[in-house]
Design a protein that fits this description.
By secondary structure, this protein is mostly beta strands. The protein has one domain: AttH-like fold (Beta Barrel). The protein has helices at residues 2-6, 9-22, and strands spanning 51-62, 65-77, 92-101, 108-116, 122-124, 130-133, 136-141, 144-150, 154-161, 167-168, 174-176, 184-201, 204-219, 229-237, 242-249, 255-263, 269-272, 277-286, 293-302, 305-311, 317-320, 326-337, 341-347. Strands 1, 2, 3, 4, 5, 6, 7, 8, 9, 10, 11, 12 and 13 form a 13-stranded antiparallel beta sheet that branches. Strands 14, 15, 16, 17, 18, 19, 20, 21, 22 and 23 form a 10-stranded antiparallel beta sheet that branches. It is globular.
């Protein structure tokens, strides 16, 4: 049953690519400045938009040391199948990536899935966060987010309780990704999630606590033509503050667009102008599998503060070419410098251009 539910990953990926090339942006609902994000409705799925993701990253503490984790669910609309009346038509396709960064393992443990939407088995609720692919789940209930992931080499069963209100990114949730305002998403974060549960690696279960960060974005545009990828940081600071910062990169390494939002220990949030943001690589790691070099150690300047990022584990490359077609570095990092904390750094487009 499980293999049937997952469907053919290669067929799903082909459908996504065909939808992107055949159907223009007008086939999708647009992202419009000034649109209010309303909870709990907007914590759920937006099936009229092209692509959407719920992305949870965090640091876990156990009696045997620190670990990092990532759970991401993607939803992609496929207009090519919408005229098909069959309940099995792949008009909505879901993907999921999950990973555990365990320094004891020496490399990232990760897994991925993809499937067409099928009521009760593979679906994303439109009323609140509740997304699943078979027995992989992420849902919000009883005041907490809960995720359950069972893979060959690892498993996660975590409850993540909000301690702060959502942080709206960009202009009240309208997050621009390029000079043309059409390249934008609706985007909010939930930093400083308090984590408790269990993590299993190589058959050994550990009780864990920790801190996590949730991002939820939905959009209808592909990556801007002059961008190949991005660097993104979500950091939970030890004083209770939070920082999100990203830059979109061109093929020559130039900055196409950049944005940052911070929240201080007192709860005050503010956005930062592009001139106040800079990423400076300090050291790189070269993948022995793909030969790609990633700047896994960085200084990130926001305003008059510089944050120094150091990876919990250098080998946190995630190969998702069998599902979303992406190959990227997604890593737990320690934050030092202007403030201490724990975060996640995402580095994409250092091999090929991100394909969506």
């Amino acid at each position: 049953m499980r293999n049937w539910i997952r469907t053919s990953i290669s067929v799903s990926s082909a459908l996504v690519l065909s939808a992107s090339s055949v159907f223009p942006a007008l086939a999708y609902e647009p992202v419009v400045p000034g649109t209010a994000i309303v909870f709990p409705r907007d914590a759920g799925s937006h099936p009229g938009h092209r692509i959407e993701w719920w992305y949870v990253t965090g640091h876990l503490d156990s009696a045997e040391g620190a670990m990092g984790f990532q759970v991401t669910f993607f939803r992609v609309r496929n207009p090519d199948a919408e005229a098909n009346p069959s309940r099995f038509a792949p008009s909505q396709i879901l993907f999921a990536h999950a990973a555990l960064a365990d320094p004891a393992a020496g490399h990232l443990l990760h897994a991925q899935r993809s499937a067409r939407a099928l009521e009760g088995l593979v679906e994303a609720s439109t009323t609140d966060t509740d997304v699943r692919i078979d027995d992989w789940t992420l849902r919000r209930a009883d005041g907490a987010y809960r995720t359950r992931i069972v893979a060959d080499d690892f498993a996660l069963e975590l409850a993540m309780t909000p301690t702060q209100p959502p942080l709206l990114q960009g202009d009240r949730g309208f997050s621009q990704k390029g000079a043309d305002a059409k390249h934008a998403s609706y985007y909010y974060s939930e930093p400083q999630l308090r984590v408790a549960g269990h993590a299993t690696a190589k058959g050994k279960s550990r009780e864990v606590t920790g801190v996590a960060w949730l991002d939820h974005e939905w959009s209808s545009e592909l990556l801007a033509g002059n961008a190949v990828g991005w660097d993104w940081l979500g950091a939970n600071l030890d004083d209770g503050g939070a920082l999100m910062v990203f830059r979109m990169r061109g093929k020559d390494g130039s900055v196409v667009w950049t944005s940052a939002t911070s929240r201080d220990a007192g709860g005050k949030a503010m956005g930062w102008p592009a001139a106040s943001i800079a990423f400076t690589p300090r050291r790189s790691w070269k993948s022995p599998r793909t030969g790609i070099s990633y700047p896994v150690g960085m200084d990130v300047r926001v305003g008059d503060r510089t944050f120094t990022l150091s990876p919990l584990l250098e080998d946190q490359e995630l190969d998702a070419r069998a599902s979303t077609g992406t190959l990227y570095w997604e890593g737990a990092v320690r934050v030092g410098g202007a403030a201490t904390g724990r975060g996640y750094l995402e580095l994409t487009g250092y091999g090929d251009k991100v394909p969506f």
